[in-house]
Amino acid sequence: MYESYYGFSERPFQLSPDPRFFFATSHHQRALSYLQYGLDQGEGFIVITGPIGTGKTTIARNLLANIADENIVAAQLVTTKLSPDELLELVAAEFKIKTDSNNKADILQSIEQFLVQLNKQGKRALLLVDEAQNLPSETVEELRMLSNFQLDNKPLIQSFLLGQEELKDIISAPEMEQFRQRIIASAHLKPLNVEEVKNYINHRLKQANCNKDKLFPEEAFQLIFEKTLGVPRKINIFVDRLLLFGFLEELDTITNEAINEVASEMSVELTGSLDGSELANEQSAQPLVVNSTENVENIKNVLREVEEILETTIQQKVKMTRYIDKLLKQKNRQFAELQVKDNEN
């Protein structure tokens, strides 16, 4: 939408993890170094944890994109609440291992035969498990059992676990002692600070070949940090929306006024959940009884809020109509220019 207006070769703040846009803060670089160290060691578990949206999946994609060793056969799982048997079935599927039945013993045997065959070819398997906090403890233990597959005292498969902070609680449980003893490194990602937010945004703009100087003034980065709390995913959502707003309003610079206006718009939408606050509390879930002056006043407040939301929605529809009108005008100009060139020829 706004790419041509700001001279981007592509959208710089897409949500999909893209190794080309990877920006390594000190925490991200440390986590990536641990992953690389784990690869070099060829054994044990690496565990990367962090809050939602801090870039765990991006790190995993970056690692997979930059693996130079052709002898590593990698697969990535994005887990749900899998039982141990379901985990094994998914591992077999991701490595394209043919199994003769759904029997656990048969699946384990097929996986072991696959790993031994890789070893004979001078290769080894790497399993990246994303959203690992969703795994029950018995399924995490199944991963440890997979690491028992060895040949000549060398492990045939290595696993990296990436997950939200709940993963630390799972691994810290008393019954997970054997698993903890096989963790050779771990790292915890944190949100970006103000300076990192600035460098993160400028890095992505540069990757998209931005041709606008000082698109974001210096004071804007502090405000963006305050609105997003330095969480990369929230930054992507918010700055993408800022650029769309800037295009619709024909802004050459994203001012603090624009940032505050967009943040205000998004606060009453589902988009991005910038503040992360609860939508409702227990009291708001109770039935409303109109039998007091206080309840009547509550109803008035609710109606005022509904009116504000409707007004915001109408404003957004007006902006979208303006955007469509602008696109049509651009297309008409392009068509007219083509006709002029055809007539000249």
Major β-sheet annotation: 5 strands, parallel
Number of domains: 3
Overall SS class: alpha/beta
Straight-line distance between termini = 32 Å
- The appropriate CATH architecture of the largest domain is 3-Layer(aba) Sandwich
What is the average per-residue confidence, as pLDDT, rounded to a whole number?
81
What's the total count of β strands?
7
Helix content: 40-55%
**Which assembly state applies to the chains in this document?**
single chain
Protein name: DUF2075 domain-containing protein
Keywords: Coiled coil
GO molecular function: ATP hydrolysis activity
Coiled coil: 289-316
Report on the structure:
- This is DUF2075 domain-containing protein.
- Pfam families: AAA_22.
- This protein is an alpha/beta fold.
- About 55% of the residues lie in helices and about 10% in strands.
- The protein contains 13 helices and 7 strands.
- It is elongated, with a radius of gyration of 26 Å.
- The protein starts with a helix and ends with a helix.
- About 5% of the residues have low confidence.
How would you summarize what this structure contains?
The protein has 345 residues and is an alpha/beta fold. The protein contains 13 helices and 7 strands. It has 3 domains: 26-188, 3-Layer(aba) Sandwich (Rossmann fold); 194-277, Orthogonal Bundle (Helicase, Ruva Protein, domain 3), CATH 1.10.8; 284-345.
